[in-house]
Design a protein that fits this description.
alpha+beta, 4-stranded mixed β-sheet, 4-stranded antiparallel β-sheet, about 150 residues
Length: about 150
Amino acid sequence: MSRTVLALALIAAVGCSGTAPADPAVTVLARSQHCDLNLSWQRIGATSELPPALPQVGIFEDSTTLVISMGSQPTGGFEIVLPETATRNPDGSGIRLDVRLNAPPADAMVTQALTSPCALIRIDTPPTTPLEVHFSGTAAEARNVR
């Protein structure tokens, strides 16, 4: 009796593990501390102009390319923290990208220069896939970025 239960549990576990597609990978193509963009995120198409601070890269039709920018910041020490994968919505309606925007601690020693941190990323999902970008972190809370 116990072997039958164990066999059924094993079949159920193996059968369930392969059904859900993997979360799409996030690849950082470039980063810069001086992007001169005043936007939170923007999808980039094949004909889009990238800021001079970012290298021109091939835009692939089978993936989504984004620029994420913190806009102008008063000092150094601001950073964009990206996950290794985007998360598929449970209902299959698209993907969600959770991005942390961190500000330096109040007592941190930072460069006294204007910066505008940004990142150019690729997500392994077609550009027609609905995308939600959610911001959190100390810099997002200070600016009420959503």
